[in-house]
Amino acid sequence: MRVLVAGSSGFVGRRLCPALDKAGYAVRAMTRRPETYRGAGEAVHGDVHDAGSLSTALAGCDAAYYLVHSLDDADFERRDAAAARTFARAAADAGLCRIVYLGGLGDDADDLSAHLRSRREVEELLGSGGVPVTTLRAGIIVGHGGISWEMTRQLVERLPVMITPQWVQTRTQPIAVADVVRYLVGVLEVPEAAGRSFDVGGPDVLAYADMMRRVATIEGRPLLVVPVPLLSPRLSSLWLSLVTDVDVQTGRSLIDSMTNEVVVRDDSIRRLIPFEPMDYDGAVLQALGERAKAKRAS
Q1: Is the dihedral of CA 151, 152, 154, 156 positive or negative?
Q2: Dihedrals phi, psi of 269, to nearest 5 degrees
Q3: CATH fold of the domain at 2-141+176-201+263-277
Q4: pLDDT tens for each residue of 109-128
């Protein structure tokens, strides 16, 4: 089976491509700059906003992974919707049998943030061309290079005392990036997964403040977290951009979502892809190990 990965150079994509290759799939890694791609699979040019490039990239493929979003753009909702529509039409024209999409956790009955609403909209739009879509909904994905994880790590390492917004008390269900990749590969050819959405998460349900405290304990660092009700999302995003490498726009999009509880409501994927996901401490240790290895290599 030939599989296209849209977002092959991103945080998840650069791990997914070698995993698919190892599993025996013919991988086509779509990127806007194929000449710089050094990962697994065949690099092909493609842009989710360019229908012509998608037609070429998807030709001969049987399925595709969609790992694309535009959090760093103030107009991300419109851009992501337009890209999903374009991709859905191109996938249908190419005769694909499946699209696998990585979306976001969140209760549909909740007042979802713009970021999470956009993820839901992309789910729907990807299926608008008639190709069955399998969606995995994840909260914080822990792994070296992931935006949410890097934000957590940098806050802990740079601020031993934090005056924080109230969202640090919101619960989430983090998952190791290796487990996300395992689920992504696992659902591809499972017939029962076609046209369905699944929640994915690790075994621990934690408040953001507890996640930071655990990282501090693992790294042997002091940490005092003091939540206050005075920091607006705008001020919080400015604060993040000063303390971490996260830009203001991405920080604002993430912080808006941190007011929503993102936990697994339906664990049915555990029966389709049975394995024990890594706990939060194990995921943190793995992420820190990956970062140390990357620093040594550079």
Answers
A1: positive
A2: -65, -25
A3: Rossmann fold (3.40.50)
A4: 777 877 788 889 999 999 99
